[in-house]
Design goal:
heterodimer; A: mainly beta; 4-stranded antiparallel β-sheet; 29 strands; 7% helix; B: 601 residues; alpha/beta; 7-stranded mixed β-sheet; 16 helices; 31% helix
Chain lengths: 382, 601
Amino acid sequence: MEETEFDDILDDWFIESLKTYKDLHVYQLEHPTQVIEWTSGKTVCVAGFTSSKNEILELRLPLKLFADENKGLCAERDFKVVHGGFTDAPVRCLRHIPGTRCVVTNDGLSSDLQVWDLGGDDSDVIRRTGSVDGSRGVSEGGSRIAARLSSQPQVLHGAESAGVRLTQLTSGQTVYTLETDSADPLSSLHFVSDAVFLAGCSNGKVYIADTRTSAAPQLSPPPPSSGESVLWWTDASAGPSCLDPSSCRIVRLSSCGQTVISDLRNPGGAVSRAQLDVQTRRCNADDVRVSWAPALDDCIAVSGFSGAVQIYSSSVWTTELQEAQPLFEHRGHAVSSQSDDGVPVFVTSHVWHPERPRTLLSAASDGSVHVWDWVDQSAAGC
Amino acid sequence: MPEIKVTPLGAGQDVGRSCILVSIGGKNIMLDCGMHMGYNDDRRFPDFSYITQNGRLTDFLDCVIISHFHLDHCGALPFMSEMVGYDGPIYMTHPTKAICPILLEDFRKITVDKKGETNFFTSQMIKDCMKKVVPLNLHQTVQVDDELEIKAYYAGHVLGAAMVHIKVGSESVVYTGDYNMTPDRHLGAAWIDKCRPDILISESTYATTIRDSKRCRERDFLKKVHESIERGGKVLIPVFALGRAQELCILLETFWERMNLKAPIYFSTGLTEKANHYYKLFITWTNQKIRKTFVQRNMFEFKHIKAFDRSYADNPGPMVVFATPGMLHAGQSLQIFKKWAGNEKNMVIMPGYCVQGTIGHKILNGQRKLEMEGRSTLDVKLQVEYMSFSAHADAKGIMQLIRMAEPRNMLLVHGEAVKMEFLKGKIEQEFSIDCYMPANGETVTVTTNPSVPVDISLNLLKREMALGGPLPDPKKPRTMHGTLIMKENSLKLVSSEQALKELGLNEHQLRFTCRVQLQDPHSDTDTLHRIYTHLKSVLKGYTIQHLPDGTVMVESIVIKVSSSTEDPNTKVLLLSWSYQDEDLGSFLSTLLKKGLPSGLC
């Protein structure tokens, strides 16, 4: 592409962005990340996933983003690298243990986890402090990880449904193990309350279990018309609207763009469905992210199919499978990427800000990281 | 061991003033001479007592080098050269030389006239200081003296900013000043060749930052301007007449064209005059592509931007005005500000740092009521926006620069060591070089391993190669014998004979003689023979000869026997040896002093 042509496109998108975003920040990391994880209201962790040496970085978001009253007087727009560390393996999954300065990672090569101390004010080095064994006998793929606030730091992890375990970090003891009839590879793990969690499998099944009992988990079968090679990703809405775990909602997204929303009270049924307009590039199990907005009703973000992050409002969906149009599309990564090898850029990860309703962070395969606060231009909706 | 010493002047952890001392190959260089903008007392000046307790600095410094015109890099220069005292050369690039005195004078006016300070440099001092300046061109080696040479490289950042390469013999240091590695609209990216300096000195302040893109900063600027215009407000942009102003003008012009906006944009006449002057400086200082943009787009041929007349400030409706000076401390920008400050629809956008004591500084600190001349108060109701457009390197940029220059050691100033461990580890791991982080006032000594080139005469080389076995062993070092002649700046290794010839000296042979007394009843001849036999059994592997002239020779050592005149049983052995056989000779004399074993025949 001619350089001037490229600049024009960028200009158009940027000029459009004046109306479509409240805030917009564009950064370039040295190496792309597949993980973005909040470690506090103002800091996130990112990490590399090359096959050899990688960095784990804790970044503080720009002060300008949070300076609500005196925003104009704050010129600080940059990320600050507050802590950093090195690892010899890729980081495919990274989870912060709430209430601690600990993160847990998995390299995608085995089901074992690495434990890290992010460090405090007296040092800027992220240090490896230990490991957690995963289940033995796992054929391929890495572990998914989940954690919630608890008096004793614990981590829920597993690569397959049979063998998901809840491990105490300090003692290394396993306090709970999930037992399922089949060993289905997992695409995610989510806590919906202190004790209830969901194990989302790539074949579309969702297990609902309670760590306090040894009773068999509830199984929500995969949505109908799911083929053999179709992959599924899941997210569960949690938080204040979910004081009663059974009122939590589950969204399942397939690699063909089919989306099903269910209620925990009736996990087998579907509250609503939609066919999303996703460009079907060949997706790996690791690439796609689907997430409920924590501070907006019925909003879902989807990424990994292309260089865009799409926001959908599921409030207008029905039980009939119909095409849904995104409420908003963040095309920043696709538009500003200059890929040398002709391989189009795709979004590797996204997260919502836990409190600011429309603020997201997204990362792409070219190493870019964007922080954006989009404007809802629709009359109704989120 | 040869070493280079680096000391960042300053106290404790304070950041905001650059002044670094480097001692290399017997030369002392001061890099930058900045003012700390946060202090009002003497702490704002670097502490020169490190160089000398009292008196002028001329004898202690070989040169001073200034990287660019920002006050935290040159603000203390007139103080240092005229009030403390320095008469040696001060090196800086041409644009820096042109712009420095203007900024210094502005700064002086604010500090003295507005704040009434007394211990400060005068206008005349600024002029006298600038007389000592020797301007530099990019990539041109300048000999400061016989041994010290410096060279400037393009740093980006601001007009005229340079990174500097300092060399004494085969030791060298590169100081980056402030730089950026991503090109700007009007400035390119820093560049340096693979010069492999012993030390690369850089700021640590930006090393732990990941910068938001230029486009996002511009977006914020356009968004703010547009929002104000849309609500009918007026936007004041105080600028210093340099590249930044021109860049923002181009940005607004493009935007106005794209959006088909009608509100007028003005720049004040003060800006026009100065800009013309700097425009010429620009041309040599920017790269080809940027030069094309500026040549095509003449400063005053904007479609939407017109020259300002002060009566326009009272016109109704939205408008944007670029006016000098940049910190709202005087002149037209301040006048306009006073008129527009009372309306909350209006906006002022500050595109850079403002010195303490200026209105700009006050409003950026949130002050909403200002005391003006004549005790009147100004209510600040307009929107105040602080935007930073300056181009700086970040974590990634530092790594890129190290990759470019390939230094043997890295040194980062102005950082807290405990907060920089990760970066230090990163640099050490990726490049296998040491990374030093001295605190202000602390000296770091870096041992260098300079190579000393020496010529060797062909004859000597051939001769030495002929010695030793048939097969040379490249891994095994061998001692060689020669004479080192140092003439002017060259070193040469030659054989001793050649050295003597070249120097016109006679060769002298040194021989030692010693007498040993022995009790031996035999005849002189027999005693000699007994000595011969004894030595042959003790000194195996040595050449021992019994010569017909009545001497025994061990290598070059000659042994003669004679009887004492008083007592024929007392034999006197005369030993004589040349300097080369000193060890053997000493050994023999000690051995023979012990006498001959009785069992000899």
